[in-house]
Amino acid sequence: MDTMNTTAQVAAVSSNGVYSFTKPNRESITLLTGLGVEGDVHAGVTVKHRSRMAQDPTQPNLRQVHLIHRELFEEVAEAGYQVEPGQLGENVTTEGLDLLALPTGTLLGIGEEAVVEVTGLRNPCPQINGFQDGLLKQVVGRDEQGRVVRKAGIMGVVHRGGTVRPGDTITVTLPPLPHIPLDRV
User: Fold this and answer.
1) The pairing of beta strand 92-95 with beta strand 65-69
2) Please, are residues 175 and 103 in contact by the beta-carbon 8 Å criterion?
3) Residue 44 needs a FRET pair 20 to 30 A away by CA distance; which of 20, 66, 91, 168 works?
4) How far apart, in whole angstroms, are the C-alpha atoms of residue 59 and residue 53?
């Protein structure tokens, strides 16, 4: 495996024990191996997102941890949208790392102990427009070839637990070649 040099860090951490679109910021969150964020409604071995549970509640939970790059908030601000960490439901807001360019299976070392394995892209849902009308079009669109482009962050599973705080560094370990581009999970 190949480790990338990066200056990435955690900008904010968020969790919520009840279903709601946004998640309040915390001083720290604890990642639990194979489960997700301690006390978060989306933690578990099997799917916890309502739409996924309706399809098949026995599916493995590949969406234990949601990460968004803070740079997305700057991008949508140019279109007139004000978004703060946790408001799009993410658990970890990062800065200095192009999350969307990472391949499937990338390991993100966060802080001193935690490791999250990247499973795929968040598939933005219509609830984003309920948060701010028109925001969905800012975080999902199409490229020049007409392919769907999802920008609302990535999902992962907890490979190794630990406490995560704002200011923690993030190390990136790429999986062996060939790299598999992220797809929605």
Assistant:
1) parallel
2) yes
3) 168
4) 8
> Strands 107-110, 170-174: parallel, antiparallel or unpaired by DSSP?
antiparallel
Lookup result for tokens 């639990």: 32
The conformation of residue 102, written as its DSSP 8-state character, comes to: P
Q: Is 145 left (phi over 0), alpha (psi -120 to 50) or beta?
A: alpha
What the block records as the tokens of 163 is 């406490």
- Could you give the CA distance from residue 123 to residue 149 in angstroms, rounded to a whole number? 10
Residue located via tokens 């990472």: 102
Tokens of 57: 């509640």
Q: What is the pLDDT of residues 53-111, one digit of tens each?
A: 677 878 899 999 999 999 999 999 999 999 999 999 999 999 999 999 999 999 999 99
What pLDDT, in 10s, does the model give residues 151-178? 999 999 999 999 999 999 999 999 999 9
CA separation for the pair 96, 163 (Å, rounded): 20
- pTM > 0.85: yes
- 131 CB-near residues (< 8 Å, 6+ apart): 21, 22, 87, 88
Residue 129 CB neighbours (<10 A): 13
CB 176 within 8 A of CB 107: no
How many CB atoms neighbour CB 74 within 10 A?
A: 11
